[in-house]
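stage 2 :: seqdesign
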């Protein structure tokens, strides 16, 4: 008992020492935690209250961000009629600091305060006291009852003050890279990218920027702000020149964050657009998350799958999605059929290594033994590694085109063979003829015959602009995301604020008809991958590029 008491005392001393050493959080940090995660300064969850004071949502489900969004600029909330049929939408107003705490008198608009749907120009500005009354009791700044969609919250004075401190930091009028006549963008290229692919991407982006800037509208002397809103002035504000900055990274990934910080300090940018990487993108993703900088659809093979992050969007999960497709094919969840032993081969340090880890993790939970053979970064006998793994029930090759061409004659076993379409070159993968009948390819884009019309639009644009096609998919994706951003900026009507643009893309991308290589794109709140599925395909013939899908489009 004495030893137990001694151990408990030591543990308490360690906890006290840790608490003393931990830096105290600022009011803004506490307010951010309340707004984004529904966690109060005490660590307790924020409690929403229903009518009559009954307990409602708690914690993350009660967080302000669920309705007012990261941008603080509000959202549409669908309402339903009988049997769940959607009948209308209710506009959730902005709560970014200036929209709450500054008055906007009709006829005397603030020229630098962008118009957003739901902003109120005919109510008194909130104070700390009246905002507390609205949050706790549902009464707005003018003494009117708020609608039933606005919960009531149990929140103390200190937490309320911290929330207000955070809301005051949300200011869409001070976005980096936004100057009077110009929007500055960066595109980032990692050092493992081949110079020809770098140039191919930049050819597309530079031509798009030139064409977009030539279409710029000029202000009209007749244009004036409406007596009701700022919309007409905001529509003028959207017409700014786009300027592209190319940030080429060098050295080890551990140094990229410092390089990006230096570039960003020297030239602030509104967003990171497209970009090009291979096996490493995490330092770029983390930098953008830390700086609250929108990173829009980079061309990367191993995107960062971090559900809690907000600022990066990707077209696809790349080889991580392929690992899900292969895992489901090898052994469906809950099924007793399928392979018991899997052999996978990849190049150390290449994108296939991340795919191999993801596949091993997925199959490990399903009782499958997974063996992995990493080849050296260069050299090594690919054919020998394949022969050594032929005793498995399934063979998975996370290899690029050059290695696929060197796999040698197809072994007599195993019967199930899978390859990466992303790494191998899709339908142009140089797989030897003897491998084709038995090999299935993880294929995260639409089938060639199905995407031809959508891709031909981009190919025609490349021909008009005399852009050589070096990497069709990458260049088509780059053209696609430039167009998506251009449309989003038109829709936000001059509200140049990175989180707001991300939210606009999440809300509207599913309505695009020209989706390039992908059969369908969709995003929703807190989603980061616009294309979520793929096929397992096989070659239709012993030579050529014709593919046949084993089944329908699948989402692992």
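stage 2 :: out
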């Amino acid at each position: 008992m004495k030893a137990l008491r001694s151990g408990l005392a030591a543990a308490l001393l360690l906890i006290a020492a840790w608490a003393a050493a931990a830096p105290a959080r600022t009011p803004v940090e506490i307010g951010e935690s309340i707004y984004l995660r529904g966690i109060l300064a005490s660590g307790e969850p924020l409690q929403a209250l229903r009518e009559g004071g009954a307990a409602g949502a708690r914690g993350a489900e009660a967080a302000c961000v669920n309705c007012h969004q990261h941008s603080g600029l509000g959202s549409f909330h669908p309402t339903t009629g009988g049997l769940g049929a959607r009948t209308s939408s209710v506009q959730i107003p902005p709560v970014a600091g200036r929209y709450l705490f500054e008055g906007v008198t009709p006829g005397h608009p603030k020229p630098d305060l962008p118009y957003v749907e739901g902003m109120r120009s005919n109510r008194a500005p909130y104070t700390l006291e009246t905002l507390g009354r609205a949050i706790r009791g549902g009464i707005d700044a003018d003494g009117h009852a708020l609608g039933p969609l606005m919960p009531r919250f149990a929140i103390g004075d200190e937490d309320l003050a911290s929330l207000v401190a955070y809301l005051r930091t949300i200011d869409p009028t001070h976005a980096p890279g936004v100057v009077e006549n110009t929007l500055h963008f960066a595109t980032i290229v990692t050092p493992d990218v081949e110079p020809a692919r770098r140039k191919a991407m930049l050819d597309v982006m530079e031509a798009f920027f030139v064409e977009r800037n030539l279409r710029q509208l000029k202000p009209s002397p007749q244009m004036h702000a409406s007596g009701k809103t700022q919309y007409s002035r905001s529509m003028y504000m959207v017409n700014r020149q786009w300027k592209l900055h190319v940030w080429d990274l060098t050295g080890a990934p551990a140094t990229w964050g410092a390089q990006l910080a230096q570039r960003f300090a020297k030239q602030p940018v509104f967003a990171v657009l497209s970009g090009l990487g291979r096996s490493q993108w995490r330092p770029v993703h983390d930098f953008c998350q830390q700086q609250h900088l929108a990173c829009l659809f980079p061309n990367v093979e191993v995107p960062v799958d971090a559900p809690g992050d907000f600022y990066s969007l990707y077209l696809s999960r790349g080889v991580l999605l392929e690992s899900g497709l292969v895992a489901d094919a090898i052994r469906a969840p809950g099924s007793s059929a399928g392979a018991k032993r899997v052999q996978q081969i990849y190049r150390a340090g290449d994108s296939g290594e991340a795919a191999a880890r993801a596949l091993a993790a997925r199959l490990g939970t399903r009782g499958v033994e997974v063996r992995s053979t990493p080849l050296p970064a260069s050299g090594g006998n690919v054919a020998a590694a394949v022969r050594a793994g032929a005793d498995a029930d399934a063979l998975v090759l996370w290899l690029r085109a050059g290695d696929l061409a060197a796999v040698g004659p197809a072994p007599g076993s195993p019967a199930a063979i899978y390859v990466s379409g992303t790494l191998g070159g899709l339908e142009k993968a140089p797989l030897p003829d003897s491998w084709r009948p038995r090999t299935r390819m993880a294929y995260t884009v639409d089938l060639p015959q199905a995407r031809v019309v959508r891709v031909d639009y981009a190919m025609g644009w490349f021909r008009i602009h005399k852009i050589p096609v070096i990497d069709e998919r990458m260049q088509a994706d780059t053209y696609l995301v430039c167009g998506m951003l251009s449309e989003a900026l038109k829709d936000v009507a001059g509200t140049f604020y990175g989180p707001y643009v991300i939210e606009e893309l999440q809300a509207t991308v599913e309505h695009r008809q020209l989706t390039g290589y992908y059969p369908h794109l969709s995003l929703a709140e807190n989603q980061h991958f616009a294309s979520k599925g793929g096929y397992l395909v096989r070659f239709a013939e012993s030579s050529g590029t014709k593919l046949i899908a084993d089944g329908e489009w699948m989402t692992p």
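stage 3 :: structure notes
- The domain at 182-317+462-525 is CATH 3.40.50.2300 (Rossmann fold).
- The longest helix spans residues 2-21.
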